[in-house]
Amino acid sequence: MNLRVLALCSLLGPPNVVLAAEPPPAKTRAAGEIIAAAPDRDWRTPEPANLLYMELAAGRVIIELAPQFAPEHVANIRALARGGFWNGTSIYRAQDNFVVQFGDADADTPAKAKSLGAARTHLPAEFHRSTQGLPFDALPDRDGWAPEAGFSGGFPAARDPAANRVWLAHCYGAVGAGRNNAEDSSTGAELYVVIGQSPRQLDDNLTVVGRVLQGMELLSAARRGPPPMGIYDNPADRTPIRSIRLASDVPEAERSALQVLRTDTASFRDATEARRNRIDDFYKRSAGHIDLCNVPVPVRSPPAR
Amino acid sequence: MNLRVLALCSLLGPPNVVLAAEPPPAKTRAAGEIIAAAPDRDWRTPEPANLLYMELAAGRVIIELAPQFAPEHVANIRALARGGFWNGTSIYRAQDNFVVQFGDADADTPAKAKSLGAARTHLPAEFHRSTQGLPFDALPDRDGWAPEAGFSGGFPAARDPAANRVWLAHCYGAVGAGRNNAEDSSTGAELYVVIGQSPRQLDDNLTVVGRVLQGMELLSAARRGPPPMGIYDNPADRTPIRSIRLASDVPEAERSALQVLRTDTASFRDATEARRNRIDDFYKRSAGHIDLCNVPVPVRSPPAR
């Protein structure tokens, strides 16, 4: 009854990869092998000023910010983190197959709402930006939501060259700024994280500020709140946030060493191609296709020197 | 700071819908209004012999089986349920952004594995079936994974008319039969449920047996197990399953009253169109598109008579 161990191989490929001295060409290697063999130059270390550390009782969640897409929001988020805005706040919403949301659970109640401190209370919408000067590696795969889908600086994104627009995509793990009906009503204080099927209908409708690099499982397994929006009725159901700090404000000894595979490398392209056309013993039929939000962007601990 | 309540409207539309005496035409109504106004004939009551009730300490999960797609697996699952196979088993795997899996955690250990009782220990693969005689309502939207994507009998599915193949799609909530490398190595005893971004690379590679109609939030919030596959190291982390029964074997007084919106109705088509082109105050830009796995299939309690 050996049904279980091999059933449904990890999306990240086999856990233990034995590499030959001479790796075979990419087309005969699985994604996991290609990633394991990627040279060190294909991995980048995110800037500490672009990393948020969210400390929960269960562990640390690490978010990479994308100032190239949302400079005003990222500047405000840095100011909020430096002012300790999120310390003692909570994850106050978990809507199944949609998002968790965190920040000040009393933000709606003027008498109780927390001050944003030195941060700004009004920002412009940053739903999209100009394509000018922004690297973008388009996937060859068809995407129903946008003329082009691909990666920019490590983030899943979509692009409409004719409209001179590019925006971050609402894939699993995307972090966005909650807002009211007015498009310029987000400040970055109330943030949501996608925990289900990618809600790409939100693309270019909200300001996406980054994505979760580590600790998604601490957010995605939050007990769901009641319909329709998953906001907990009972404050005891909230997940307390001990603090959110910029990695650059954390003593070096307490930082998490972390590297992200560059999305503009042959290693990433080859790994994606290997996922499009799987050649392992488990798959009986290759899709010959991959959707933007099905492409994982690998994260690792840097190898020991 | 009224950022929170209206931020990120529910995928299911506004919670409280006030209908005019004469509903406006579909194109100016939101999906939630269209669904609320659907006539009773647009709702179906699933066959009790096609419903599995999984009883957890936290509540009941209801799965609708799809015998029209996987007749042999569904017959075996019925035999397993009638034999009490799952009573006292567990959810023993939770892999983030992928699946939870349940059944006999000792299935791999011949000395400890539970007998399947009167159920069969070998079944043919039922990855796809012939398109003949099967209703299929294709979405007009482009799909990268298959020539056609749409709905059949209430289930998200994909079709390749040239190959005479149709299969159930691995959308959020899909329930499939775990297998080993051999394509005919699933029995239906070990079942997985999709809890993340739709892993459609699995389509036509495993036998999908149905989908979760109610209680997804009891599965999707399971504490994640360790990488790579999320199988818990510690048996104490498993979620015990009290029982899994067919609704048809449950006394009527203990059954859950439940109806599903028919996917071959104008109500469903109009609601889907309203999601493609949203007209509410929150959305600033309509996608003009929807992906198969972003289309919810509404479930309700039958109205009081």
Beta strands of chain A, count: 16
CATH topology descriptor of the domain at 48-120 and 169-259 in chain A = Cyclophilin
Outline of chain A? globular
Most extensive interface:
A-B, 85 and 83 residues
The chain-level mean pLDDT of chain A equals 92
Into which percentage range does the β-strand content of chain A fall?
15-25%
How far the N terminus sits from the C terminus of chain A, by CA atoms, comes to: 43 Å
What do you see in this structure?
Two copies of one chain form a homodimer. With 305 residues, chain A is an alpha+beta fold. Chain A has a domain at 48-120 and 169-259: Cyclophilin. Chain A contains four helices and 16 strands. Chain A has helices spanning 31-36, 71-82, 216-220, 266-276; strands at residues 43-44, 51-56, 59-65, 90-95, 99-103, 137-138, 148-152, 155-160, 165-168, 174-177, 191-194, 207-214, 239-240, 243-246, 259-261, 299-300. In chain A, strands 13-4-5-11-10-12-3-2-14 form a nine-stranded antiparallel beta sheet. Chain A has a four-stranded antiparallel beta sheet with strand order 6-7-8-9, with no helix packed on it. In chain A, strands 1-15-16 form a three-stranded antiparallel beta sheet, with no helix packed on it. The longest helix of chain A is centred in the N-terminal third of the chain and has 12 residues, at 71-82. The first copy, chain A, starts with 30 loop residues before the first helix and ends in a 5-residue tail after the last strand. The model of chain A is unreliable at 1-21 (pLDDT under 50). At the A-B interface, strand 4, strand 5 and helix 3 of A face strand 4 and helix 3 of B.
